[in-house]
Structures are given as C-alpha cells and as structure tokens.
Specification:
alpha+beta; 3-stranded antiparallel β-sheet; two-stranded antiparallel ribbon; 1 helix
Length: 90
C-alpha cells in the first residue's frame, strides 16, 4: 500500500473510473509534506493518550516517538517500549 499505492474509484464525466493513488512520492521527496507534532492528544479507549512526538507524512501518522529523561534511572528504553505498546493496544 505504501509503495504500490491505494486503489480508488471515482466518477468523471458520468463514468466510473479506477486508479492507483500513491501515498508517498518516493521518487521526489520534495513532493511530500512532513509534520512533527509534539504532545498531540489522541483519544484512547480508556483515557486520552499523549505521545511525545508523532511524525506525519502527507497527513498519515507513520511514526510515534516516546522520549525519556536520560537523568531518570527508571526511565529507560523498556519504559518507552512499554508505553508504545500501551498506545498500540488502545
């Protein structure tokens, strides 16, 4: 889907047509829109969730980044991993 595109149907001049829509232009990176959002609240099943950073490409949320305080001994990579798993499950 990301590489080959998505099949869509539309009507033009009273005639149904089909085509493939590319979600990301891999040939010309400048044709894409990139957005990094900090602390975006997302509705969760139990409660709202607020990942540290969400990276959008052409409006699609493709990456979730969870940052941890390097000075906090309890906040390691596994704490970030567990938090991402919670986001994924909800």
């Amino acid at each position: 889907m990301m590489i080959n595109g998505v099949s869509v149907e539309y009507e033009k001049d009273g005639e149904k047509r089909g085509d493939k829509v590319k979600l990301i232009d891999f040939n010309n990176i400048n044709n894409n829109q990139f957005l990094a959002v900090n602390q975006c609240t997302v509705k969760g099943i139990k409660q709202p969730r607020r990942p540290d950073i969400i990276i959008f490409i052409n409006g699609l949320p493709l990456f979730v980044i969870e940052l941890k305080n390097p000075a906090d001994e309890k906040a390691g990579i596994w704490a970030a991993f567990d938090q991402i798993q919670t986001y994924k499950e909800e």
